[in-house]
Amino acid sequence: MTPTLTRPELTAADRCDRCGAAARVRAILPSGGELLFCGHHAREHQGKLRELAAELQEG
Ligand SMILES: [Zn+2]
Q: Where's the DUF7455 domain (predicted)?
């Protein structure tokens, strides 16, 4: 269990960037940016995130 990037775990204070629900997944972009998604939006954007080679971390 050695993540390539050290990020704090998602907490109840982390919110989905799309709808404001509690975040369940963090998507780390190759550029270093990150996006937070609830379960619903993580699934919805999963295909696009794969295209972008984002690293998905479930919290
Ligand atoms: Zn959402």
A: 10-57
Q: Residue 26: which of 17, 18, 15, 37 has the closest Cα?
A: 37
**Which residues crowd ion ligand 1, with CB under 5 Å?**
16, 18-19, 21, 38, 41
H/E segment holding residue 40: helix 39-51
Are residues 26 and 44 in contact, defined by beta-carbon separation less than 8 angstroms? no
Q: How far is the CA of 14 from the centre of ligand 1 (A)?
A: 11
Collect the ranges in the chain with pLDDT lower than 70. 1-5
